[in-house]
Amino acid sequence: MDHRFTYHNFVTNNVFSLLDPIFLVIFLFSILLLIMVCIKKTPIWLCAIFASLTVIVSGQLLWFSAIIVDELGIGGSTEDFILFMGILVTQFLALYITVLKSYKKEKNRNTH
Protein backbone atom coordinates (compact mmCIF):
# COMPACT_ATOMS: atom_id res chain seq x y z
CA MET A 1 0.00 0.00 0.00
CA ASP A 2 1.12 3.50 -0.78
CA HIS A 3 1.38 5.61 2.41
CA ARG A 4 2.16 8.92 0.75
CA PHE A 5 -1.01 10.60 1.97
CA THR A 6 -1.20 9.19 5.49
CA TYR A 7 0.98 8.22 8.40
CA HIS A 8 1.74 4.57 9.00
CA ASN A 9 0.05 4.55 12.41
CA PHE A 10 -3.26 5.75 10.90
CA VAL A 11 -3.55 2.47 9.02
CA THR A 12 -3.40 -0.95 10.67
CA ASN A 13 -3.52 -3.99 8.37
CA ASN A 14 -4.80 -1.79 5.53
CA VAL A 15 -7.70 -0.60 7.75
CA PHE A 16 -8.16 3.04 8.80
CA SER A 17 -7.89 2.92 12.59
CA LEU A 18 -7.30 6.55 13.57
CA LEU A 19 -10.77 7.13 15.01
CA ASP A 20 -11.06 3.83 16.93
CA PRO A 21 -10.03 5.35 20.30
CA ILE A 22 -12.52 8.22 19.89
CA PHE A 23 -15.39 5.80 19.28
CA LEU A 24 -14.30 3.74 22.29
CA VAL A 25 -14.28 6.81 24.57
CA ILE A 26 -17.74 7.87 23.36
CA PHE A 27 -18.99 4.33 23.95
CA LEU A 28 -17.56 4.34 27.50
CA PHE A 29 -19.30 7.67 28.20
CA SER A 30 -22.53 6.14 26.90
CA ILE A 31 -22.14 3.22 29.30
CA LEU A 32 -21.46 5.71 32.11
CA LEU A 33 -24.68 7.58 31.32
CA LEU A 34 -26.61 4.30 31.27
CA ILE A 35 -25.21 3.39 34.69
CA MET A 36 -26.06 6.85 36.05
CA VAL A 37 -29.61 6.55 34.77
CA CYS A 38 -30.03 3.10 36.32
CA ILE A 39 -28.59 4.08 39.71
CA LYS A 40 -30.17 7.49 40.32
CA LYS A 41 -32.76 9.86 38.98
CA THR A 42 -31.46 11.76 35.98
CA PRO A 43 -33.46 14.65 34.48
CA ILE A 44 -35.03 13.82 31.13
CA TRP A 45 -33.66 16.97 29.48
CA LEU A 46 -30.08 16.13 30.51
CA CYS A 47 -30.35 12.58 29.25
CA ALA A 48 -31.98 13.69 25.99
CA ILE A 49 -29.36 16.35 25.28
CA PHE A 50 -26.45 14.05 26.07
CA ALA A 51 -27.95 11.15 24.10
CA SER A 52 -28.72 13.22 21.02
CA LEU A 53 -25.34 14.98 20.98
CA THR A 54 -23.49 11.70 21.45
CA VAL A 55 -25.36 9.98 18.62
CA ILE A 56 -24.95 12.98 16.30
CA VAL A 57 -21.21 13.32 16.98
CA SER A 58 -20.51 9.60 16.62
CA GLY A 59 -22.62 9.46 13.44
CA GLN A 60 -20.65 12.36 11.97
CA LEU A 61 -17.38 10.65 12.90
CA LEU A 62 -18.53 7.46 11.20
CA TRP A 63 -19.55 9.43 8.09
CA PHE A 64 -16.24 11.32 7.92
CA SER A 65 -14.32 8.11 8.50
CA ALA A 66 -16.09 6.59 5.50
CA ILE A 67 -15.20 9.62 3.37
CA ILE A 68 -11.53 9.45 4.41
CA VAL A 69 -11.40 5.71 3.75
CA ASP A 70 -12.92 6.19 0.30
CA GLU A 71 -10.55 8.99 -0.64
CA LEU A 72 -7.44 7.14 0.54
CA GLY A 73 -8.50 3.83 -0.97
CA ILE A 74 -8.06 1.81 2.22
CA GLY A 75 -10.41 -0.41 4.21
CA GLY A 76 -12.84 0.90 6.79
CA SER A 77 -12.85 -0.26 10.39
CA THR A 78 -15.71 -2.58 11.31
CA GLU A 79 -14.95 -1.79 14.96
CA ASP A 80 -16.11 1.79 14.39
CA PHE A 81 -19.46 0.62 13.04
CA ILE A 82 -19.96 -1.87 15.86
CA LEU A 83 -19.11 0.79 18.46
CA PHE A 84 -21.50 3.22 16.75
CA MET A 85 -24.29 0.65 16.98
CA GLY A 86 -23.42 0.09 20.64
CA ILE A 87 -23.54 3.84 21.26
CA LEU A 88 -26.91 4.02 19.55
CA VAL A 89 -28.34 1.16 21.62
CA THR A 90 -26.98 2.40 24.97
CA GLN A 91 -28.21 5.95 24.38
CA PHE A 92 -31.65 4.68 23.41
CA LEU A 93 -31.76 2.48 26.52
CA ALA A 94 -30.67 5.36 28.75
CA LEU A 95 -33.36 7.63 27.33
CA TYR A 96 -36.00 4.90 27.54
CA ILE A 97 -35.16 4.08 31.16
CA THR A 98 -35.19 7.77 32.10
CA VAL A 99 -38.62 8.31 30.54
CA LEU A 100 -39.93 5.09 32.09
CA LYS A 101 -38.72 6.11 35.57
CA SER A 102 -40.26 9.56 35.15
CA TYR A 103 -43.56 8.07 33.99
CA LYS A 104 -43.66 5.68 36.97
CA LYS A 105 -42.90 8.54 39.35
CA GLU A 106 -45.70 10.67 37.86
CA LYS A 107 -48.10 7.72 38.00
CA ASN A 108 -47.27 7.09 41.66
CA ARG A 109 -47.65 10.79 42.47
CA ASN A 110 -51.11 10.93 40.84
CA THR A 111 -52.40 7.82 42.62
CA HIS A 112 -51.62 9.15 46.12
Automatic annotation (TrEMBL):
Q: Which top-rank group of organisms is this from?
A: Bacteria
Q: Which UniProt keywords apply?
A: Membrane, Transmembrane, Transmembrane helix
Keyword Membrane tagged: yes
* Transmembrane regions: 15-37, 44-69, 81-100
Quote the protein name from its UniProt record.
Uncharacterized protein
Organism, scientific name: Lysinibacillus irui
